[in-house]
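Quarterly update from the structural biology core.
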Amino acid sequence: MEMRAAPGALGEAWSRRVLAMTLIVAAGFVCLVGQLWYLQVLEGARFREMSEKNRIRVRPVAAPRGILYDRHGLALVDNRPAFTVSLITRDMEDRNSVLARLSILLKVPIAELQEMLARVPEDSLRPVRVRRDLSLEDVARVEEWKLELPGVVVEVEPQRVYPTTTFAAHLLGYVREVSEEQMKQGRYRRGDMIGQVGLERLLDEYLRGRDGGERIEVDALGRPVQVMKREEPRPGAQVVTTVDRRIQEAAERAMAGRSGSVVVMDPRSGDILAMTSSPAFGLDRFAGSLAREAWLTLVKDPAHPLLNRALQGQYAPGSIFKIVVAAAGLQEGSLTPMDRTYCNGEFRLGAWTFKDWMAGGHGHMDLRSALVQSCNVFFYQAGLKVGPDALARYARAFGLGAPSGIELGGEKPGFVPSPALRRSQGRPWHGGDTVNMSIGQGQVLVTPLQVARMMAAVANGGILWKPRLIQRVERADGTLAYSESSRMTGQVDLSPLVWAFLRDALRGAVSEGTGRGARLPGIEVAGKTGTAQTIANSDSARGQDHAWFASFAPADDPQVVVVVLVERGGKGGQVAAPIAREIYQAIFLEKVAMASTGTDS
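Predicted structure, tokenized:
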């Protein structure tokens, strides 16, 4: 007999099933609503921000760097637009493939690109600049493969441009991307371009300005769709320097092909009108990307192009130092203008014989003629009369053996020896040390900038100025951010008669003595030559000695000091003085031209 369930039992079972299904659906719905509430309410802001980050890119816009002008308003350095390739790591899905293709297109080692990206997190949205100053051909190649290069961005940034490749290189300095060491200071962001040396470094806070930015909407591949918002960058401040571009260019032309330095200073204020160091480095090499190998080659160059010889080169002053000897002797009373010596070409002190630069000697010499003809034998004896302590004291009074106070950085102090210093080292001072010191040899070391300050003091009657490079700094809106006035940092106390004697003797050195190579029609130049031996106990040999010429003009109303040093150039009168003449000719072009043509001024 077949058994059948009761209809009531079946309905009850079905009801239980429906209830269970309803509860399950309701539980699922509650979970779904709860998850939606969690995502939209509790985490909504965070996910919205993440979504915006995937859709919106914030791209920095570099501020144009401030311009450096000369004293007459001519630009010493300017800006130009340049192409830069940057990488956004977050948009690079297949990093290795992108880097490999970019390496081929730009001819950059892939290891170099990998090293740059290793410094930032993989999900970073900030562009990492990997190549600056791209050519139009480079940009065209990158744009051609744009779809294959997600995360690669070509930008236009301002870049420094100079009148010539090496123009005022050591004075102006250069701009490069902030280094890892500089990043540790906490003042810079990765990719910032900052001044590294020279005026670019000294004035970096004023010149850098403030970067702007763009909020850019991008598509799924990270390609720009539209600019949603733009904050304009604030340009850097404008700097008016004391430099005269025309004089700077003349000094660089005159020193072309030689190693050495020229310093041109206004003795009335301490303003630096020109400062050269030769050979110089190419500023444009630092404007773009400089490979490590190229940097090492520059650093190891035996010509030392990175050395600023004007304030970092330390040299024996040679006969330039005779000005100090004469000043000390006359002021202390150990020398008089009437003192006379017969120069036969050599001077004996004990077992030692000290030679004059002129074989056979100069004959009878007094103090003025000894300065004019740069007679060593006279000054050997004069130095012994004055004494080493007084020589050292007056040398320091003239600013030798100590930094000048210029703010470029890296300035060397030079060295002025003395018996007291020698005794503190446990060594004796000998008469031969005094003899050598009297002609600027031995341990005496000076920089061209120190010699320029010394000659400025002779020209202006004893005032030692702090060398000035900056007149004022003006913000982009025209307001004054900084100004600097001339500042006296020392004074040489000599009687008016001594100053008059020195200036007269230095005029004679150019008009009738060893500095005749600096003579110019229409302008009277006063100066002193110097030939500094570079090899101990060797005879002076052309090509081995440093050539000096320190001068000022016009002699009766000094307006400019010109100091020339030529490394291993030979004799100062034959090499350095003609270079100074060329510079003076450019400075006083109109007066020289009128005098040459016989035109009455």
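The first strand starts at residue 56 and ends at 61.
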